[in-house]
Amino acid sequence: PVREATTAPLALPHGIDLATFNTFIDNVTSIVGAENVRVITSMDQVDDGSYEEPTHTHDPHHIVDQDVFLASAVVAPRNVADVQAIVKLANPLSLPLWPISIGRNSGYGGAGPRVRGSLVLNMGQNMNKILEVNVEGAYCLVEPGVTFMDMHNYLVENNLRDKLWIDVPDLGGGSILGNTLERGVGYTPYGDHFMMHSGMEVVLPSGELMRTGMGALPDPRKPETMGLRPEDQPWNSSAQLFPYGFGPYVDGLFTQSNLGIVTKLGMWLFPNPGGYQSYMITFPKDEDLKAAVDIIRPLRLAMVLQNVPTIRHITMDAAVMGPKTSYTDKPDEVVGDAELDAIAAKLNLGRWNFYGAIYGPEPVRQALWGAIQGAFSAIPGAKFFLKDDTPEGSVLRIRDLTMQGIPTFDELRWVSWLPNGAHLFFSPIAPVQGEDAMAQYEITRRRCEEAKLDFIGTFTIGMREMHHIVCIVFNKRDADQKRRAHWLIRTLIDDCAARGWGEYRTHLAVMDQIMGTYNWNNGSFLRFNELIKNAVDPNGIMAPGKSGVWPAHYKKEEHIM
Ligand code: ADP
């Protein structure tokens, strides 16, 4: 079936007139089928949906007007050949494509494209198979639409949880592939997803298919002689075991970037450690953050802290437990220190709350728990909790699942701190140093308060650095609050850059500003990326503007907001 003729999208792709667009859509429809093409012709289609039901047309957490980061159409390829055919059609037109896997990407722009009117390629809708779970090698090979929840369910349904776990982020509904490409994190010892991936299959802007690492080495059985298309051929047997292969390591080029469409990803699974214990340590005072972080650094480096632990501010846990109105009768005012203490007392939490887990058989856990308790006892007033010491619905009970690779959706609740709650993440990196943590807390909380928004934040501890995740929650039906939230992130980016802190990932609206801060030696980093971009994607079809990298024929100033 062919789509009804001449439907005008709300937003045409950059540089494309309506007649060209319609011809293009007709051609795409004949490739993927009408059921896989949706042209966005009316604001009735631009519905924010929900986490459970994402709509893929735009960013549902819109910090600017709802239709700024809007797709012209959403197209779901059925397979690699479809993706290649679409790329071939887009090239002569320089038509911008914006690949997503699941398109939730919550707080960083959702499914919305950086350039209004780009064609959103919904890779996950039809390409959603778990291609392999290898128990001996402890890895999986997945297509774009496989979520963390899907993989967990697979492990449960196949009685594999006693052997393998999947590391999961705060929410289980995102894709393994999309999250890894964004360099997202989870909270088991395998929390750094990019570090734990092995092997990518990519449709390049030319339409050619490439496998990275050991995947570039052909299978000795010569599957091409069996009549298999490249994408259906078995991978080299080490492709999911050794990520680097030979020669330049290119996988990083496909993360937070715009150089290709990833169609398969290998991912390491975490071997069941043979025992598990989560815990929480609460610290009563704001300034305890300093000592806590300085205690964490050597423990984390030595892997006494085995997983990616978090130190959460009291507002974050409070927001999971209830909306702002359940704690204060002055919801229009920023929550002050006295109220924070009252909330902490009510919830039996500290100003800062540290969540971690211990992995291994009983004697191993005993030894590590002894070391951890001993170290943190140096902080006056520190209290130690296991899951059963906390009430039903506690954040520790949620984290207990997350840190053993069982995905949940409970952390969604902090977005409802405010009515019509939406959010934006501000995520600067810093050394694991008490002084840095205190200084980042001071500046981010002060700027939040200047914007008349509550500070909600958590420090996530990697191997040698912290991702400080500031959750900027705003009422998306309140234009003034949105302006303040936007002002806040823009101001914080510059504040932090001035102190040597840069962000690890960001929302569409501020990608250019952040790339502008990574400007050492006359911006050689961006210029090198532009060189690669223009060589690999000369027509600039792939996600123009992603991470502040623009094709040569775009006038970047016209797109910066
Ligand atoms: P999630 O699965 O967490 O909802 P998304 O599907 O929204 O994440 O993907 C996040 C980002 O990762 C996208 O905005 C895009 O930049 C990139 N991305 C996702 N899937 C692909 C893909 N298959 N190929 C290339 N880039 C992708």
Molecular structure report:
With 561 residues, this protein is of the alpha+beta class. Helix content is 30%, strand content 17%. It has helices at 18-32, 80-93, 148-157, 176-181, 288-301, 314-321, 337-347, 362-376, 395-402, 434-450, 479-498, 511-517, 520-536, 556-559, and strands at 37-39, 73-75, 97-100, 119-122, 130-134, 139-142, 164-165, 197-203, 209-211, 261-268, 270-271, 276-283, 310-313, 352-359, 383-385, 421-426, 429-431, 457-461, 465-475. Strands 12, 13, 14, 15, 16, 17, 18 and 19 form an eight-stranded antiparallel beta sheet that branches. Strand 5 and strand 6 form a beta hairpin. The longest helix is centred in the C-terminal third of the chain and has 20 residues, at 479-498. It is globular, with a radius of gyration of 24 Å. Adenosine-5'-diphosphate (ADP) binds at residues 99-105, 111, 123, 144, 174-175, 177-179, 181-182, 261-262, 543, 546.
What are the SSEs and their pairings?
Blueprint: H1 18-32, E1 37-39, E2 73-75, H2 80-93, E3 97-100, E4 119-122, E5 130-134, E6 139-142, H3 148-157, E7 164-165, H4 176-181, E8 197-203, E9 209-211, E10 261-268, E11 270-271, E12 276-283, H5 288-301, E13 310-313, H6 314-321, H7 337-347, E14 352-359, H8 362-376, E15 383-385, H9 395-402, E16 421-426, E17 429-431, H10 434-450, E18 457-461, E19 465-475, H11 479-498, H12 511-517, H13 520-536, H14 556-559
Parallel strand pairs: 2-4, 3-4
Antiparallel strand pairs: 1-2, 5-6, 6-10, 7-11, 8-9, 8-10, 12-14, 12-15, 13-14, 13-18, 16-19, 17-19, 18-19
Helix pairs in contact: 1-2, 5-10, 10-11
